[in-house]
Amino acid sequence: MLFVWIALWIVALILLLADPRSPVNRRLGAVCLSGGAGALASTLADVFIPYLHANRPHERLEELLYAVQAGSSLFCYYGLPYFYLLFAMAYNPSERLRRWRRRIELALLLPILLCLLFTPPYNEYHPITYSIVVWWAIPYFLAATFIFVTKKFRHYSLSHTHWVICLAVLPPVLFTMTVSYVLPSFGIFKMWKYNTWLVGIAVFVFLIGLFSYGFMGLRVLIDRRRLDSTLRAVTSGTAILHHAIKNDVGKMRLFTEKMKAYADSTGQAELAEDIQVVQQASRHIQEMIARVHRRTEDLEIQPSEVRLDELLQGTLKPYEPLLGSIKLHLNVAEGWRCTIDSAQVGEAINNLVSNAIEAMNGAGQLFVSLREGKKELTVEVRDTGDGMDKAQAAKALEPFYTTKSGKEANFGLGLPYAYHVMRKHGGYLQIRSKQGIGTRVYLIFPKSNVNAVHVAAPPKKRPAEGSEAHGTRSGMDN
């Protein structure tokens, strides 16, 4: 059980250090801590205390270790079902119960307090009164599992990480429920020793999920920090480069103007043409570095109230003549007014649509949607182009990375710019792509961060009595 203890506490430490403000991470960390406490109690009882008693007898130290063993064992038995239920409630929260969350958490502690007060105290052979604890612990486990597995996702980008979390959490927890609560209530003890294998598999799934798909937002957090630091480095570097080149190009322009004037006054036409070529090259260099600088500079957001559906439709309007054989599918949830920088968000959407159209080479299907969830609004841009493999998709948000070889003036800054815009708005950008199928890009706006409010559409005016309504008929009339 030494491995179980160390492994679970390391996972708890990773979860808590990664995002200590997240209630989901804190509560899953508490699940791991309580599970590891049970393994610690077993390790003390089977390894450390017997070794100390046999080799270096020390009565007070043995008493102290026994007290730690008892506390760890009780923390595991009483804490595991409680924290598991709190984790499930945070992972799949109910809007109806949000106001009562604190009271519910306190009420769930009541069976634990009653058991501590009115059941026999801890001993090595019967740490808890199983026949009583099982009547509240098992409902906690089953309710938490139901809440956990019934979580629904509005979009594909997050659903697969849910099943990675299920594989890591459910098997060891449900096995522990069976061998540590159900079987002991029937007189079958010590079966929890077989939990080592399931915990090992769960830790393996955790590590694979962390680096491949993401786990509890950890991979997203790691990627964000890496991209943020990269963008900061690129921003400062291009700012210095832009300033230096701008100054030197200004000097070149000043002196080439003098040289050109001299060439014109002395009738040296060939020299004047050569100087003009140098001037054009200097202007081109300045223009190119200015374009890079504009895309990488630290954005200053100027938020205002905007109808997100109208912004999306207005951004798509100029592309309609350019679609050719590309079929556009537009599905927009109407009426959402948000406080955002319309210019920056519009440019971010513009980059995604432009990339999607270029990826399809004149033929395919372009899907653009605005969907509403409980806590967020999601803009999705999906194409049926060639798509990207995993390595390309992982690098897509890195500045200056591009798959558009041979394209002039393409710096690979469109997606990093869109990512930067979303971060400034408290949202995030996600990419899902498969070779031969296409690419999906999601712009996800948390409603609370953009002050999203749904505005009901104004009622349509009824025609005056005796007059006839003109125009197209609605879908209900057809």
UniProtKB/TrEMBL annotation:
Query: Which keywords annotate this record?
Result: ATP-binding, Kinase, Membrane, Nucleotide-binding, Transferase, Transmembrane, Transmembrane helix, Two-component regulatory system
Molecular function terms from GO:
kinase activity
* Region Disordered: start-end pairs: 458-478
EC number(s) per entry:
2.7.13.3
- Record field: compositional bias (Basic and acidic residues): 462-471
Which reaction is the catalytic activity of this chain?
ATP + protein L-histidine = ADP + protein N-phospho-L-histidine
Positions of transmembrane segments: 28-52, 104-122, 128-149, 161-184, 196-222
Q: Superkingdom of this entry's organism? A: Bacteria
What name does UniProt use for this protein? histidine kinase
What the entry lists under PANTHER family is as follows: C4-DICARBOXYLATE TRANSPORT SENSOR PROTEIN DCTB, SENSOR HISTIDINE KINASE
Q: Which Gene3D superfamilies does the entry mention?
A: Histidine kinase-like ATPase, C-terminal domain (3.30.565.10)
Species the sequence originates in: Cohnella boryungensis
Upper taxonomic classification of the species? Bacteria, Bacillati, Bacillota, Bacilli, Bacillales
Top EC group: transferase
Q: Does the keyword Flavoprotein apply?
A: no
Domain Histidine kinase span(s) in chain numbering:
240-449
